[in-house]
Design a protein that fits this description.
The chain has two domains: about 240 residues, TIM Barrel; about 70 residues, Non-ribosomal Peptide Synthetase Peptidyl Carrier Protein, Chain A (Orthogonal Bundle). Helix 7 runs parallel beside helix 8 and helix 11 runs antiparallel to helix 14. Helix 9 links the parallel strand 11 and strand 12. About 35% of the residues lie in helices and about 15% in strands. By secondary structure, the chain is an alpha/beta fold. It starts with about 25 loop residues before the first strand and ends in a 52-residue tail after the last helix. The strands form three sheets. An eight-stranded parallel β-barrel has the order 3-4-5-6-7-10-11-12, surrounded by seven helices. A two-stranded antiparallel sheet has the order 1-2. A two-stranded antiparallel sheet has the order 8-9.
């Protein structure tokens, strides 16, 4: 298994969800998970504490926050803190971001030689302006020769470590890049390709176009796993995506915010077992406390509890918790105060229907910010001027 199966996972029977007949274990290089699920890297979220919390729920591949190749090469202190992995975390999956083939190759070689990870994922899907304006993330596959050079630099320096890529459909509706980028990535030797079925212009708005995942699966060799990402908010969504697209697994991002037990649901669903019963508020509160403790262990008591604050609204979504308790939880300053506030919750409240559906940021579509004259020549392999100057960790 790629991740440990928790001894204390909840069980129950909600009925109605069974595994599709074609489901098979997900293999990324030498690593195999019976549950074909990957935790998407999310900035400020998928640190070691959150990954452990999710691993305690169910099996899968759990990827750390995005790390810049330049930060790795320059041994940036923030970068070194961000790549912390638990001793029992296997495989150790690290996502790297970069726009320079030389820096990417150097970073991957450091990861391999220093035994910092077992699996390297590459970010070609981030749509945020501070990334795309430097030609990175979802903007980069448009420059097909530069994209290929970066992927080859990673694969050539990875040795036995499997390299995967995560990307989007393209920059916008007029500039789809995913089929060409997928073929180039496979030709360069990647172990798997993941597709967030939105354009960069969509950001996280609207609905993911799962038909693009089908087209990518059809375009690539059967032995290379294709993973689908976008609008996986419950186990039924994951099974439906696999059935409709024939993808080899799913990548879960926003759907697990405030719902780390989703990975237990996914493990049960893909195994054809009844789903665990949705947690009552008391179980949610216990998970919140566990999350806070893990963050403190990873970051220190003060920073860990402050980092926990942003998760509170996600955990309590849909629950009729009083505004004053909700406000105080959002400002919690210590574990004792957290215990005091959680004790005021009604433990018997059932999980509300209002808590289902989209979570986290959604926003609205918009123009993709790109380097000057970025769209002039897709075959230009030049590294954008100043693109590698940002090296503050992830």
């Amino acid at each position: 298994m790629a991740a440990e199966v928790p001894a204390g996972a909840a069980s129950g029977d909600t009925g109605g969800v069974s595994a599709p007949t074609r489901t098979r274990p997900l293999r990324i290089g030498p690593y195999v998970s019976d549950t074909p699920v990957v935790l998407a890297p999310m900035a400020g979220i998928t640190n070691a504490g959150f990954r452990r919390l999710c691993r305690e729920q169910g099996a899968g591949f759990y990827v750390c926050e995005m790390i810049t190749s330049r930060g790795m090469v320059e041994r940036n202190p923030l970068t070194l803190r961000m790549i912390a992995m638990d001793a029992d975390e296997r495989p150790r999956s690290m996502q790297l971001y970069g726009v320079d083939p030389v820096a990417m190759g150097q970073a991957v070689r450091i990861v391999r030689e220093r035994d910092l990870a077992d699996h390297i994922d590459m970010n070609f899907g981030c749509p945020v302006p501070k990334v795309t304006r430097k030609g990175g993330g979802a903007a980069l596959p448009y420059k097909r020769r530069l994209f290929e050079a970066i992927v080859r630099a990673a694969v050539d320096n990875a040795g036995p470590l499997p390299v995967t890529v995560k990307m989007r459909i393209g920059i916008d509706d007029e500039r789809h890049t995913f089929l060409d980028a997928g073929r180039r990535a496979v030709d360069a030797g990647v172990a798997a390709v993941a597709l967030h079925a939105r354009t960069a212009a969509q950001r996280y708005s609207g609905q993911a176009d799962w038909s693009a995942i089908t087209r990518l699966r059809d375009a690539l060799p059967a032995e290379v796993p294709v993973l689908g990402n976008g609008d996986i908010f419950c186990a039924a969504d994951a099974l439906t995506m696999v059935e409709r697209t024939a993808c080899d697994g799913v990548v879960v991002g926003r759907g697990c915010l405030g719902r780390p037990w989703l990975f237990g649901d996914l493990e049960a669903a893909f195994a054809g077992r009844p789903l665990p019963a949705p947690p009552a508020l008391g179980q949610v509160a216990a998970t919140m406390r566990r999350h806070a403790v893990l963050l403190q262990e990873h970051m220190g008591e003060d920073k860990g509890i402050r980092d926990m604050r942003k998760h509170i609204a996600w955990y309590l979504k849909g629950f009729p918790v009083g505004p004053e308790v909700r406000r105080r939880l959002g400002l919690v300053s210590g574990i004792d105060e957290l215990d005091e506030l959680l004790a005021q919750l009604d433990n018997d409240q059932e999980f509300p229907a209002e808590a289902d559906g989209p979570r986290g940021r959604q926003g609205s579509p918009g123009r993709v910010v790109l380097p000057e004259r970025w769209l002039d020549d897709p075959d230009d392999p030049s590294v954008p001027l100043g693109a590698e100057l940002e090296h503050s960790g992830g």
